[in-house]
Design goal:
CATH architecture of the largest domain: 2-Layer Sandwich
Helix content: 25-40%
Bound molecules: nicotinamide-adenine-dinucleotide
Number of domains: 2
Shape: globular
Number of helices: 9
Largest sheet: 9 strands, mixed
Radius of gyration: 20 Å
Number of strands: 16
CATH superfamily of the largest domain: Dihydrodipicolinate Reductase, domain 2
Strand order of the largest sheet: 15-14-13-12-6-11-10-7-16
CATH class of the largest domain: Alpha Beta
Distance between the termini: 12 Å
Structural class: alpha/beta
Length: 366
């Protein structure tokens, strides 16, 4: 199959994960890289034997079919719209935009230009999450009842060299980590009907402890503890908390409850991990994960590869702009619910993405 040319914009921390993982997907050809800071792009290009280009040139580069937008969240809209305007497909890191309105603009621009829009996360395509999906699809849970989703930590300023964006508008634990959990929940349970939420901001500054900028104090402009309830269209009620204010905890990342069973789904920020099942009246069992794209490798770029294959074979891609927009509407709704004291009805909905076809050799997606 003809390879698809990828132009990376934003060669910061996460770009290495994409460049390395792309080696698992022969359809991806990283044609060029660019960054607001040309020296950063050149250094990444030198490290991986790639071609650095200017920000202006990459949008019109004939070798680039898809712009891979790995910039910080508040630049996703500007970079994404410019790429779509230049006739390039776009695959973006999460969140799709820093507000639902921004996400809507990107989805609308892709539609009106007849171009593809994809968005991270793609971890729900990992072997463990697809195993959980297969169990749900087989009806093992019975009628879905509810569940829990927890990501809680003391904050990313412990390890990220430039953590200020996590505390600016467009950052915060919900927009940063919520996409992994909520996207996986939609993959498992389908779309959400309404959201009830509450938020807290216990401190107004954070002190960086990552060695690159240790001791620097950064302001906090967003809630850093976000909690609430997702009410799915199928009736399931899932409690969720995303926080940068918790020293430690003992919740598992994702639990799903059904009338017949409880399912433990591993960390949706990773592709593998142990799936566990408790059938009513039985014992906890470890579920074997024989599906591809699981343990041992960071496959971050599988969503991009799926979109590239989808382009070539003219089928829908799984990590879609519509899915990311539905998730973004939910994530924004926690704050809206806090402000209004009401549940927030979702205006968007989405079909669950098709399960990964396992009939092909690893690296090929249908
Ligand atoms: N760091 C992680 O572990 C991680 C994990 C998953 C997803 N992400 C997501 O990846 C994205 C990037 O995160 P990161 O950690 O790599 O950030 P980073 O700050 O390390 O890198 C971002 C890069 O984008 C460039 N940039 C910013 N604005 C730009 C613009 N307008 N045009 C061109 N380049 C621009 C910056 O110069 C920088 O090099 C974010 O959306 C984040 O949510 C990060």
């Amino acid at each position: 199959m003809e390879r698809v040319g990828i132009g990376i914009i934003g060669t910061g921390k996460i770009s290495s994960a994409y460049i390395e993982a792309s080696k698992h997907f022969p359809i991806l050809e990283i044609a060029a890289v660019a960054d607001l800071n040309p020296a950063v792009a050149q250094a990444k290009a030198d490290e991986y034997g790639l071609r650095a280009t200017t920000l202006d040139a990459i949008f019109t580069d004939p070798a680039v079919d898809i712009i891979l937008n790995l910039t910080i969240p508040k630049a996703h809209l500007e970079v994404g719209l410019r790429a779509l305007g230049a006739g390039k497909h776009v695959y973006s890191e999460k969140p799709l935009g820093i507000s639902f309105t921004e996400g809507q603009q990107l989805v609308a621009a892709a539609r009106s230009n007849n171009l593809r829009l994809g968005c991270a996360p793609d971890t729900f395509l990992g072997g463990s999450h697809q195993t959980a999906r297969a169990l749900v699809d087989q009806g093992v849970l019975g009628t879905p009842v509810g569940g829990t989703a927890y990501f809680m930590c003391p904050g990313h300023e412990r390890w990220h060299p430039n953590p200020a964006f996590y505390y600016e508008v467009g950052g915060g634990p919900m927009l940063d980590m919520g996409p992994y959990y909520i996207t996986d929940l939609v993959n498992l349970l389908g779309p959400v009907a309404r959201v009830a939420g509450a938020t807290a901001t216990p401190v107004s500054t954070r002190t960086i402890t990552a060695k690159e900028r240790a001791g620097e104090v950064i302001p906090v402009h967003v809630p850093t503890h976000v909690s609430g309830t997702l009410i799915f269209q199928n009736g399931a009620v899932v409690q969720i908390t995303m926080s940068f204010d918790v020293a430690g905890h003992r919740h598992v990342p994702l639990e799903l409850y059904g009338t017949n069973a409880t399912l433990l789904v591993p960390d949706p920020n990773h592709f593998g991990g142990q799936v566990e099942l408790l059938r009513k009246g039985g014992e906890w069992e470890n579920v074997e994960t024989s599906l591809p794209y699981g343990e041992g490798t960071n496959y971050r770029s599988i969503g991009l590869a799926d979109m590239a294959h989808a382009l070539r074979s003219n089928r829908p891609h799984r990590a879609s702009g519509e899915l990311a927009l539905h998730v973004l509407e939910m994530m924004e709704a926690f704050g809206t619910s806090m402000e209004t004291g009401r549940h927030v009805e979702m205006t968007t909905s989405v079909e669950r993405p098709a399960p990964i076809s396992t009939s092909l050799a690893e690296g090929r997606l249908a």
